[in-house]
Amino acid sequence: MLWVLDHNGEEADQQDSMISRFNFFYQTNGIYLSLKSFFFLFQVQTTRITKLCNTKDIPTINGLYPGPVVYAQEDDKVIVRVTNESPYNITIHWHGIRQRLSCWSDGPSYITQCPIQTGQNFSYEFTLVQQKGTFFWHAHVSWLRATVYGAIVVYPKKGVPYPFKFPYEEHIIILGEFWMKDMVQIEQAVLASGGAPPPADAFTINGQPGPNYNCSADDIFKIDAVPGKTYLLRLINAALNQEHFVAIANHRLTIVEVDAEYTKPLTMDRVMLGPGQTLNVLVTADKPIARYSMAMGPYQSAKNVSFQNITAIAYFQYFGATANGLSLPAALPHFDDHLAAKTVMDGLRSLNPVTVPKDIDRNLFVTIGLNVQKCRSKNPQKDCQAKGGGVMAASMNNISFSKPNFSILEAYYKNISGYFTQDFPGVPLKFYDFVNGAPNNPPNDTNSLNGTRTYVLDYGTKVQLILQDTSTVSTENHPIHLHGYSFYVVGYGTGNYDPDTANFNLVDPPYMNTIGVPVGGWAAIRFVADNPGAWFMHCHLEIHLSWGLSVVLIVKNGEGPLERLPHPPKDLPRC
């Protein structure tokens, strides 16, 4: 069930036909839309579904997979009451929402809140301050986001047009992964083994795997296209452990937005999204009448990793095409085509010149990568299945993050000691040739330190952060997500970062919340720490997060009344 309360009785602006369209959709389902304040009810429950010849119970929101879409407009206030009727602990993260002075509603478990336990509820409240575009929400506890996810669509203010030709229709395209086994059991088994996770049993487009998979001939998402019309596709990668290429046969995709920020138009034959990334693309139905495949396939940058290599298919089908005819195939890059992945990022630019922080107060340098810890189990064949008989881990600056059993934000706010330290190093503990000369004799020289270490920033600090991939175990493209902020990607390259040769774009860099640090390369980001709270920064490949590839940035309060973290909500879940 989804409720939206109307606080001012306004109807959608007739000039905004998309909002009018959604008004009609909601009202025909007994749901009402306000353009100022929204109230949603999310019921976490288990739902029985059948896919790939297999029936299983999965955790969902309101019995939907993918979950319900949250529609709003820029500057609206959103309230989502989450009631947990499932057997699992749950939290919900509003990915890309900057949570201005609402860190308590950000959602990562044991970072900003304790989980909502079975039978409990919690209301997330946040305002979409100067934000519009495509976002998504997902579970942020355990591996439940494999099925607990959905889109957030935030439209411009009333009367404000898109900076491109208004599309004939919009469609949400959510990329996902599906496993036939229970995800909580898979997570527990993987972490207990010390080894790598199993690949997904299928890729999905809007929850449907398509005809390439067993028992899936009718499980296909389809867009019915009118010849000559242009469509806006809101692409969201909600996958757990895999990055993906997307293409539509014989059609070009024009990127107009990345991570809910407008970009200069960039036209490509295919795009690549890491988990946590969103892209808005325009596609015009200007080809001969036919059924065209929309394909989703893997981008696998790490070496010696098993992965699903069967393509998920949807249809971009012109009106007039033979209903049961063959679909024209979409060409995807080879699974390890690093250049194809990098080409997308190379061309991204903000729509207009932007104000990039230039007088940097704090320069941070953070290595990201994998580790193999020494085996300390009495049953190594069962518990130490990583290379060299070790245990897989991941780290930032060679420190694997250990999640506490209490909310870091609450401990920080209430000055409760013992749950975290404030000594995360701002530079690597040791400098070396990160890409070509990293330690690689597991587990003898590939260990990391463990700890719940945070890094503290004063309010208003202008930050430059270099993210450097390393080759311990394997180089890899890492989608790094920063909660509570967007950032300017001012630099991006292969090899080791060198400040003397790096080229920075300080005029119109893209403004993002999740950056794919390139395989064997680096990315430079800049932001102003002007949102107080405890903000999670982590790899959005879920297995890397479980292994410890994360850190918490604590931003102190400022001096003014709008620069201080409010009191915690009364219904904040207890551990």
UniProtKB/TrEMBL annotation:
Q: Name one GO cellular component term.
A: apoplast
Q: Which cofactor does it need?
A: Cu cation
Instruction: Read off the InterPro entries from this record.
Output: Cu-oxidase-like_N, Cu-oxidase_2nd, Cu-oxidase_C, Cu-oxidase_fam, Cu_oxidase_CS, Cu_oxidase_Cu_BS, Cupredoxin, CuRO_1_LCC
Q: Which SUPFAM superfamilies match?
A: Cupredoxins (SSF49503)
User: Which UniProt keywords are present, listed alphabetically?
Assistant: Apoplast, Copper, Glycoprotein, Lignin degradation, Metal-binding, Oxidoreductase, Repeat, Secreted
Paste the cofactor note.
Binds 4 Cu cations per monomer.
Under the heading Pfam families, the entry gives: Cu-oxidase, Cu-oxidase_2, Cu-oxidase_3
Entry EC no(s): 1.10.3.2
Catalysis performed (reactions): 4 hydroquinone + O2 = 4 benzosemiquinone + 2 H2O
Q: Name one GO molecular function term.
A: hydroquinone:oxygen oxidoreductase activity
Localization: Secreted, Extracellular space, Apoplast
Record-level GO BP terms:
lignin catabolic process
The Plastocyanin-like domain is annotated at: 44-158, 169-320, 442-558
Known role? Lignin degradation and detoxification of lignin-derived products.
Similarity remark: Belongs to the multicopper oxidase family.
Q: What is this protein called?
A: Laccase
